[in-house]
Amino acid sequence: MVEVSMNELGFVIMAVVGALAICFVTHQAERRRSNAIRAIANRAGFHYIGEALPRSLTLHGTLFERASKVWNVIDGEPRGIRIIAFDCRVGVGKYSWKRTIIAIESDAEFSSAVAFNPEMTVEFVGRWKILYRSKATIEFRISGLMPIEQLEAHLNSIAAPSSRQPLLT
């Protein structure tokens, strides 16, 4: 029979409680983010889809074509411009990374401020423009996801080429 000292038992209990606390805090943060994205979707006339990308959006040829998970997908056509935004994880395990993606279809444009932000990248895939924060070699942001305020600001900056009116008010 193996004897366990009180110190060892206390350490195991503390480790388990700590792991449960981390899981709880992470779950609460994900839930708050999901609720905030739902609120953006409601204000801007998007549909909150959840964990599925519309078939019309292709990510072929991008870093995200093999995303291992997609969530918080919103899809809509405010002012006639098709926009899909979502969070995704690329890879699995220790070497995976997360990003928030904004895809716009057609000739719509992001504000000129996006073009001068060195953190942001715009790729063209078929009839889609894909906006995301570039993958840094060293991640300083823990999650890699776009802050809610920044996501809303980018969605607000999208306008048809003939009109510079924002989508969200």
Total tally of structural domains = 1
State the helicity in percent bands: 25-40%
- Overall structural class, as computed from helix and strand content, comes to alpha+beta
Rg over alpha carbons:
20 Å
Structure summary, number of beta strands:
6
Fraction of residues in β-strands = 25-35%
Oligomer: single chain
N- to C-terminal separation? 69 Å
Strand order of the largest sheet: 1-2-3-4-6-5
Question: What is the number of helices?
Answer: 3
Report the mean per-residue pLDDT as an integer: 81
Detail the poorly predicted runs.
none
Shape descriptor reads: elongated
Order of helices and strands: HEEEEHEEH
Biggest sheet record = 6 strands, antiparallel
How would you describe the overall organization of this protein?
This protein is α+β, with helices and mostly antiparallel strands and 169 residues long. The chain contains 3 helices and 6 strands, in the order H-E-E-E-E-H-E-E-H. The protein has a 6-stranded antiparallel β-sheet, with helices on one face. A hairpin with a 6-residue loop joins strand 3 and strand 4 (97-105).
Q: In brief, what are we looking at here?
A:
The protein is an alpha+beta fold and 169 residues long. The protein is built from 3 helices and 6 strands, in the order H-E-E-E-E-H-E-E-H. It is 31% helix and 25% strand.
Show the helix and strand layout.
Blueprint: H1 6-44, E1 47-50, E2 67-76, E3 83-90, E4 97-105, H2 112-115, E5 120-125, E6 128-133, H3 148-157
Antiparallel strand pairs: 1-2, 2-3, 3-4, 4-6, 5-6
